[in-house]
Specification:
The structure holds two protein chains of two kinds.
Chain A: H1 2-18, E1 38-53, H2 58-64, E2 72-88, E3 91-104, E4 107-124, E5 127-134, E6 166-176, E7 181-193, E8 206-217, E9 220-229, E10 235-245, E11 248-265, E12 271-288, E13 293-301, H3 308-328, H4 332-345, E14 353-361, E15 370-379, E16 385-396, E17 399-409, E18 421-432
Chain B: H1 2-18, H2 22-33, E1 38-47, E2 53-63, E3 67-74, E4 82-86, E5 89-93, E6 101-102, H3 116-119, H4 124-127, E7 128-136, E8 139-146, E9 155-161, E10 167-173, E11 179-192, E12 195-204, E13 212-222
Antiparallel strand pairs in B: 1-2, 1-13, 2-3, 3-4, 4-5, 5-6, 7-8, 8-9, 9-10, 10-11, 11-12, 12-13
């Protein structure tokens, strides 16, 4: 706790020093724009959160079966994201490191991850080659990206967070034209998977090839992508984005996944595997009103997701396993449930059909730098949903304050009804340097 | 009496020869403001009614009529955030998000009175037709109408210095004639390379009473770029253009 108090004190001191007031003369010193070959920057963040637990939820039983944490748990997170780069000639070295220090009901924990680390060579403005750990971030969807074949999945409740990349070699070749086709770019990717290198990507001791073709055609962004190799099954994808009017944008994604393997568990605990070709797709719109209100609405069909009955069976098995644990102390069925959940049922939004709506208002009532927002994710298969109001303030240079609450609403057997917590309240204080 | 009548008649015939060609004047104003292709550093300052201010440093590049790109250099929270305009398409790239999203010219990526149309502005002659031009004292007064519905401001009233052919004031209006904001061009400065133009643009708006935004120009110079710089794929690398 002492470490976190110190971190908070540093943040307050930085906050006070960031506030600046207008002089009569506005200055622009030429030394401010002097280019340096190196850059170091990032942010430090303090993020306390409180969770209200649902002791009757299946996922609560799975996580807390052998401890009694009461009705609420608190978590205190300190994060440091550091990035640095050095440029010489056509070469540039870049690194992005993420460090975390957490105090929770499990005590202290810490982690330090290299999110990205690349050597880039840019022999011309048309060609760049990258070697190292990198994210590609394919897809036009805001909350979900079924076509992000070479990225880790993102959390739709925090889609703007930086994510850890994979080790890869990639290139960008760009060509511009006059006429309806204004831009074409090619991005080939080589992604090896071995022990300790990308082993979370899929099957190890395999080489994988991926690629993306981007077109700006008739004022529409279009991407075609693919992934082949041994670590995951072959998949193809397409996305697009276009402005229908200046303030109304439409976007979509489509992914075809060949021979997707899915593990399911029935309520008796029998595990089975099935393979099928899966089709995932997303369609979304973004609309900006004259009063600066932004609406983002997306429909997502997850072809690799579970049906309502399959999810119900999983939760039933957890409940039965919990009863077994209570009566006999036997943890094995619960351990089996945890094992099957990993990478399958524990995926973010593991079912088939979802709707996402985010409404944000910039500078409400002409209060500059305030942005309230509401985000809802509705599971169309079982009717359960999450609802997150938030308020962000960015009126102090380099400081971002955000207060966010989340409510998970649903019945027994529903995705959001069986989450370990019903409510969450979180404050995020982030200082950039 | 006859002589007076002849003199007046001659003036009447001669007057059209001296009438100002509004479109040519507007094009000259554009070229006096900046070359067709250039690089530019600007500081954008938002001032609140209580005097508190937020500053942003922005590097931008332009080519031809409709290619514009820029990247924020400061403050740290905005560094690396870039914008691209290609014809009527506009995108914003945020480093953490890692991919560009489409935006509109009416939005503002930084808040305050300036919006994307002000920060990534094309030549006035590219977006507006001249409906009327008058000489008023030692200034030209032009009434401009947007060529398409996609332009941020439907109408502009532009006052320009008659000798320097540089804007002094621009009112930005809706189709109905409602004032959205006013731009004041101040402190003419020689930037070298034949570029002599206002180095400060101040803006206020009846929609943001008490707030003011200021744009300060530094180091504007003619520079040619390949078309590939103005593409979605190049957005994360825009800072590499700086010398």
């Amino acid at each position: 706790m002492g470490k976190l108090r110190t971190l908070l004190a540093v943040l307050v001191a930085l906050l006070i020093s960031s506030v600046s007031f207008a002089d009569e003369e506005y200055k622009f010193d030429i030394s401010e724009i002097e280019k340096k070959p190196y850059h170091i920057g990032g942010y430090v963040e303090f993020r306390p959160a409180i969770f209200w637990l649902d002791n009757n939820a299946a996922l609560y039983k799975l996580r807390f079966f052998n401890r009694d944490e009461g009705k609420t748990i608190e978590e205190y997170n300190g994060n440091l994201q550091l990035e640095g780069s050095y440029e010489k000639g056509i070469a540039r070295v870049f690194a992005l490191v993420n460090g975390n220090l957490t105090y929770s009901y499990q005590g202290w924990s810490d982690s330090l991850n290299l999110f990205e680390g690349t050597l880039s060579l840019k022999p011309s403005n048309s060609l760049a080659i990258d070697l190292g750990k990198k994210t590609q971030k394919w897809g036009k969807g805001y909350a979900w990206n079924p076509v992000a074949f070479v990225d880790r999945p993102k959390d739709p409740e925090e889609p703007d967070l930086a994510r850890e990349g994979f080790w890869m070699a990639s290139a960008d070749y760009i060509k511009s034209f006059n006429g309806p086709l204004k831009t074409l770019s090619l991005t080939p990717v080589i992604l090896p998977v071995y022990e300790h290198i990308n082993d979370e990507f899929g099957k190890i001791n395999e080489f994988n090839f991926a690629g993306k073709l981007y077109l700006l055609l008739y004022d529409t962004d279009i991407d075609l992508m693919f992934l082949v190799g041994g670590s995951k099954t072959t998949r193809f994808g397409l996305d697009f984005s276009r402005n229908i009017t200046t303030n109304f944008e439409i976007h979509g994604e489509f992914a075809y996944i060949n021979n997707f393997k899915q593990r399911t568990i029935d309520e008796q605990g029998n595990v089975s595997e099935s393979k099928s070709d899966a089709k995932s797709y997303l369609l979304g719109v973004r609309y900006l009103t004259k009063t600066d209100t932004t609406f983002i609405l997306e429909y997502y069909h997850n072809g690799t997701g579970y049906t309502k009955d399959e999810i119900k069976d999983f939760f039933s098995f957890i409940n039965k396993s919990y009863e077994t644990y209570l009566s006999s102390g036997n943890q094995a069925p619960l351990m089996k449930a945890q094992n099957v959940a990993e990478g399958n049922y524990s995926r973010v939004n593991p079912m088939k059909d979802y709707l996402y709506l985010r409404v944000s208002q910039k500078d409400p009532f002409n209060l500059l730098y305030w942005t309230p927002a509401l985000t809802g994710i509705l599971n169309l298969n079982d009717g359960s949903f999450s609802f997150s109001p938030e308020l962000t303030y960015t009126g102090i240079t380099n400081l971002e304050l955000r207060l966010k609450g989340t409510a998970n609403v649903g019945q027994t057997g529903d995705e959001y009804g069986e989450k370990p917590g019903d409510y969450r309240l979180e404050l995020r204080v982030r200082y950039y340097f | 009496m006859k002589k007076i009548l002849v003199f007046l008649f001659a003036l009447l015939i001669a007057a059209p020869a001296y009438a100002v060609d509004g479109t040519q004047l507007l094009k000259q104003i554009d070229r006096n403001l900046n070359p067709e292709s250039y690089e530019l550093y600007r500081k954008l300052i938002n001032v609140e009614p209580n005097g508190r201010k937020m500053e942003y440093t922005f590097f931008s590049v332009k080519k031809g009529l409709d290619k514009l790109a820029g990247v924020f250099l400061a403050p740290a929270s905005e560094k690396g955030r870039s914008t691209l305009r290609l014809g009527e398409n506009m995108w914003l790239y945020i480093p953490n998000v890692g991919k560009p999203v489409r935006i509109t010219s009416l939005q503002s990526v930084i808040g305050g009175v300036f919006n994307n149309a002000d920060i990534l502005s094309l030549d006035y002659a590219a977006e507006y037709d001249v409906e009327k031009v008058e000489e008023k004292g030692n200034e030209y007064y032009l009434q401009l109408k947007a060529k398409t519905k996609t332009v941020a401001y439907d109408r502009l009233n532009l006052w320009a210095d008659e000798n320097k052919k540089l804007p002094v004031k621009i009112e930005c209006l809706t189709e109905a004639g409602m004032l959205i904001k006013t731009l004041y061009f101040k402190e003419v400065k020689d930037f070298g390379g034949g570029i002599v133009r206002p180095s400060v643009i101040e803006t206020d708006s009846p929609l943001y009473k008490g707030y003011k935004s200021i744009m300060i120009f530094a180091k504007i110079q003619q520079r040619d770029f390949k078309d590939e710089v103005f593409t979605l794929t190049f957005m994360p690398k825009l800072e590499s253009l700086r010398k």
